[in-house]
Every structure is written in structure tokens, then in C-alpha cells.
## 1
Amino acid sequence: MTASEPERLVPAAECSAEIIVVNSRFIASAAPAFTVEEARAFIARIRERYSDASHNVPVFLVGHGASVTAHCSDDGEPSGTAGRPALAVLQGSGLGDVALVVTRYFGGTKLGTGGLVRAYGDAVRALLLVLPRARKVATQTLVFELPYPLYERAKLWIEEFHGELLDQEFTADVLLTARFERPQAQAFTAALFERSQGTIEAQVLEENENDLFPVIEEQ
């Protein structure tokens, strides 16, 4: 990812959170969805899971930046009180390629228009506090073989270039497989060759234009 390229954040995994508002339960569930079909399939699955709920309000954002397909519905709640506030909070999160459903179990007390808007927005906010994030990036998976004395140093080098060690095989030598964002993969390959005095070359095993890479939390 270059400095001028915006970060494309997506959910790293399916997640949910629950709040209670005047005895009504609001359960927000979200998952990554890279197509409208995937988003609709997730929404259908959540609706089936909570088929006895009063409402299952669907929202999705497929894509990033200027090329986003957005959708929301109030699912029987008063117009503009559920889907739109949930979508507005989601749009402000910086996430894309995300499907979300806010499930409501009615608690016997009406919340009014303003109360519903706040409750659906707050349910999404609660979810965003716990939702794991990943970045959608171009990656390269590299494989390289090295002697045992370099094994521990190689793991530190992978970490230095923000890579992810995927596999290791121990035979006569050590065979390591690691995944990097594309620019870091190229930098790692050059550093590995230089630090091994030209004896170790990493080979590209796989390339992925739209991979999910965990967000590195700042310490």
C-alpha cells in the first residue's frame, strides 16, 4: 500500500455485539462480504438464526472509495429509524466489504422515533468496538530454504518486514513460507538475498490482489 493509497479496511471475521435499550435487545452481527451475493447470503443466514426476532435490519457496503454499493432497509420499523442510522454509523467507520444485520427483540416498550434512531446507531457502534479489522491489500506469499543457523534470524526478518509466517518444514534445511504485502515482499526478498550473502533467494509461491492482512495495532 502506497502513502497515497487509502487503507481498505474490512472485517477480519464474523462478529456480534448486544445492547439492551428499555428492555429491547439489539444484536448487531457483521461479517466480510466482497460481493452483493455474499452480503445477501449473510443477511439471510442471520435472519434464519434470529427468525423469532421482531426485526432483522440489514445493511451492507460492498467495495471501497468511489465504487461502493450501499444498501439498507428498515425491516418493518418506522421509515428512516433503523436502516439509515445503522448505515450512517457503518459508513463513518471506514469499513468496506461488510454486511451487517441489527436484530431487535421488542421489550414491550415503544422507543419512539428518536429512541429507535439512537438504539440502532448505538448497536452498530457497540459492534465496531469489538469487530476485528483487516486490510484488503495485494500480497505475495514467498517460500525460501535456509540452513538451521539462520532459522531464528529469518523469523525476526519476517517480523521486521511485517510478514506472517504461514508454514515451516524441517528436513535437511528449513523451508519457510511467509506472506507479505507486495511492497514488503519485494523489500524482504532483496534483504534476504543481501543478508545471506547471495545464498538465499525467495520464490513467489502465490499472489493475491485482494487479500486480507491483519491490522497491526500500534503499541
Note: The radius of gyration is 22 Å.
## 2
Amino acid sequence: MRTVKEISNITGVSVRTLHYYDEIGLLTPTDKSEAGYRLYDDKALETLQQILFFREFDISLKEIKAVLNNPTLDKTQILQMQKKMLITKKERMARLIDSIDDILKGENKMNFEIFSKTEIEQLCQTTLDHMPELMRQSIIEKFGSIEQWRKHYIECCSKEDMQKGYQKMVEWYGDKDSALKAMNNPPNKEVGTAFGKRINEIEKRLNDLKKYPIDSFEIRKLIGEYGFVMKQFLQVKHEEGVMLSIASIYRDSRSTQWPMIDQKYGENTAEFFACAIENFYKNENISKK
């Protein structure tokens, strides 16, 4: 049997993180000493090694727990997904390295392309297919024709800033193919309305807790629910990036969301929502260390 400190020294995982794993039922100690100290056997150490392996691929603690508690799950499929994620990152790194080589050669150019022209054209068609008729008519009035708008859309989406935005979406969805699939199959209006109501209800309940400490269980539980709803709605593998972007929207005074939230719930509510989200995911990331 090894103590929690000995396990920490062996693996490099902090004592605080091991305590947290115990609290959420991810890694329960094998036993406890008479003095109440956590004790771990070799099997527990092997389980911790599995957890650390999954964490290297940024798999959430909830997903890891589901895998470890359900041995019937096909771990080969999980590894294939992780491999696909790594290949996507590898390809992007290769493009960046090639661009730096070009700069070193005196060819000052950078390639930020995430989605190709063909893929952007498909996204454009998807947008057009799901566009309300009133918006379609407005586009024709502004651009003269749908084809002129299509040309403008493709040109804008090919620019560096948009491609960087696409890269963030790829990170949210785990790989490029999953991001494209989600973007080309947006939720229908009814689904969007239903999820919108859930978010409004969460915001209302969160506002009722403004006097609670930001790291209280009640607030963290609601933010966890918020993240789960967004993960289900957007069908992303990891919702952290999405939620932190939402926090930025709440905080950004240029956003239409910010004054609307404060007007609805009172001054500084948007800032409170942003802090609650950031605090939640900051604490979640402790377990990665």
C-alpha cells in the first residue's frame, strides 16, 4: 500500500488532484489507515496510469469515469478518435512549420487555411439551404443576387481571421471532420428554441445565486449543467472552449449579450456569469496538472 503522498511522488500528480479524484469517484483509495489517510495498492496505481493516459488527450473527467466504470466500452474506438485528433494537430503544425520555413527563405507568407475552398463552398450552400426566406430577400436586395452574395461569403470565409475562428471550432469538436459535419448539419429551429429556453432557465437560476461565493457547490453545479447543455446542443467533444468563449461574450461590453443580461437581471450580472464560468473551468483544469 502507498500513501497519497507516495503516489504523488511516483506519478507527479498533486495531492490535491488525487483528493479531487476521490471526491468525484474517479479514483477511490483502496483503503484508509487507522489515522484516516488514503492508501492505494498496485491496481489503483494502474487505474491512475489509465486516467493520466486519457488526460494526455484532453478527455474530460466525466468521460474517463464512464470508460473506467464500463469495461464493455470499446477503448480501441477511443484510441482511434484520439489518433485522429492528433493527426489533425500534426497537420496544422506541419503547415505552420512550412510557413516558417518560407519566411526564413525570404518568402514572407503564412498559410492559415483550415477549411479549403471546396469545404467553404459547402458551408455556404448549407447556410443558404437553412436561410429564412426573408433573409434571402434581404441578401438579394443588398448584393443584387444570391450568386454575388455567395462570392462575398466565400471570399470572407477564406480570410485569415475567419480561418483562425474555424481552427477554434476544430478544437471544440475534436477534429476537422466532426466540425464540418456539425456545421453542415445545424440543429433545426425547434431544437434551437428548446435549448434556448434551457439556457435562459439556467441564467435565471444562476442570477438567484449572486450572493453565493463564486466557487460554491450551488454555482458550480449550475455552470456544469450549462456546459452540459452547450455540449449537447453543439455536439462538441469538449465544451470548455465553447464555455470560455461564452464567458468572453458576457464580459465584452461591445457584445449585445452584455447589456441585455445586465438590463434583465441587474448591473454586473454579465460579469458575474463570466466569472462563474471561468472559475468553474479553472478548477476543472487543476485535475490536468
Note: Strands lie at 2-3, 31-32, 38-40.
